[in-house]
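Review form for a predicted model. The reviewer records the input and the model, then writes brief findings.
Reviewer: anonymous (R2)
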Amino acid sequence: MARIDIAVNGLVPPHSHPRPSEVTILLEGSLLVGFVDTSNRLHTQRLRSGDSFIFPSKGLIHFLYNTHVKIPALAVSGLSSQNPGAQISSIAAFTSNPLIPDEGVQDKWSRCR
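Model under review:
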């Protein structure tokens, strides 16, 4: 179990866990949670206090965003592994060592449009 405190207008950035599935239970506040499936389709749900959400598969990119303008959010998450691992997508993409070559990224991005 992990406690998650998210500031007003705060974000747990898009990230993934290679080994577990995850369930999040919102104790206080308001959250927009979501994940991107393997077809690159975004699935989101708004949570209010007492609601829960299951991020269904290992390795899917997901996020939590506090939509409340006055109250921090408090949630707990349970992971189905004692060693879940975590990779924040933007950090992995833009601060790898060595860096991903700009030419390769630009070419792939242009094909996605």
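Findings: The longest strand covers residues 22-28.
Further findings: The helical segments are 89-94, 102-112.
Recommendation: see findings above.
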